[in-house]
Specification:
alpha+beta; Alpha-Beta Plaits; 3 domains; three-stranded mixed sheet; about 40% helix
């Protein structure tokens, strides 16, 4: 590995050799459906909470994405782009079986594996024979080949290699079409120069707007920002320290202070409804939004709560369930 440059040393980048990989299945649910059903291959496919026009798309195939059909769209919006798009409802047991197979493949290389979500996992190769024998990129290529052979040719994965889970995730995002990318101290700045703030995991539009008010408009400016500048963006010192380490390739915990106890999302219906289909679709959408925030913050939860407020009489219903283990 190359010696650290003066810039890398000056910025305080992590100059260790990468040992962390993130494996991210591309277009996961849609590609799994295409693998399962040959009639869907090469065709625009959208997986929606329900096969109704108002349902939200949770996954789209590469062919659909090439047409502009993306996750988060409603089905009627997708049909406006391409009326012949094929809409399927999710098959969670099928996706879970593929996720379990992915974990089995990864665990052949190291016991230090973390399931980040149903279609994404990280692994740490430090101290393993395969790190010396194959190198991190070599392990990535072996995992990709095993996915192709044991799960199916329709299911591909982007692999990111770096010195931390968060930075390896950024590397996996660089090429979302069966890519294999590495970020280390030799190319971190050049990669950041090609990105927008919202391309960084954990930086949503609201956070980007706060950073912009402090004059931080790009990932490189974020990397070079001083603590006083980050305080101008409304970041508490603990959060700012975490981002300073994360952006330099060091392993850090959650994105937010550990004082945070819960994550939630709510929605006010535009009209009254007793439709079970509409309510279940909304519940799935809210659950997906909470799940995204939990994954972005590298957090897990054990207690799941659902609450409903009725109008105009202000009655309230709530129920919670404790899971056997954090999810």
């Amino acid at each position: 590995m190359s010696q650290p440059s003066p810039e890398a040393i000056g910025l305080g980048l992590n100059t260790a050799a990468p040992t962390t990989l993130v494996i991210d299945l591309n277009c996961a649910f849609a590609s799994i459906e295409q693998q399962q059903d040959a009639a869907l291959r090469g065709r625009p496919v959208a997986i929606a909470a329900y096969a109704t026009d108002a349902a939200t798309i949770v996954s789209s195939s590469r062919e659909a994405r090439d047409l502009g059909i993306k996750t988060g769209m409603r089905v009627f919006e997708a049909k406006a782009i391409f009326p012949a798009v094929i809409v399927r409802e999710p098959d969670p047991p099928l996706y879970r079986s593929v996720s379990d197979k992915l974990m089995e493949i990864i665990e052949r290389h190291t016991p230090d594996v973390r399931r980040m979500s149903i279609d994404e996992a990280s692994l740490n190769l430090a101290g393993t024979p395969d790190l010396k024998r194959l190198g991190p990129e070599g392990v990535g290529r072996v995992v990709k080949a095993a996915i192709r052979e044991e799960i199916g040719e329709c299911v591909t994965a982007s692999v990111g290699v770096s010195t931390s889970i968060w930075m390896a995730k950024q590397a996996s995002n660089v090429d979302k079409r069966d890519g294999l990318q590495r970020i280390d101290h030799t190319n971190l700045v050049s990669v950041f120069e090609r990105l927008q703030l919202t391309d960084l995991s954990g930086i949503a539009e609201a956070t980007a707007s706060r950073l912009a008010r402090a004059g931080i408009l790009s990932p490189v400016q974020f990397l070079r920002a001083t603590p006083p500048r980050l305080r101008l963006a409304g970041m508490h010192s603990e959060v700012a320290r975490g981002w300073s380490m994360r952006l330099r390739g060091f392993e850090v915990g959650g994105f937010e202070t550990t004082k945070r106890k819960s994550y939630s999302h709510s929605h006010v219906l535009a009209r009254a409804t007793a439709s079970q289909g509409e309510l279940e679709e909304l519940l799935m959408r809210l659950s997906d939004m909470v799940g995204r925030r939990l994954r972005a913050a590298a957090r897990r939860g054990r207690v799941v709560s659902v609450g409903v407020v009725y109008r105009p009489d202000a009655r309230h219903f709530s129920k919670q369930a404790k899971q056997p283990k954090p999810i």
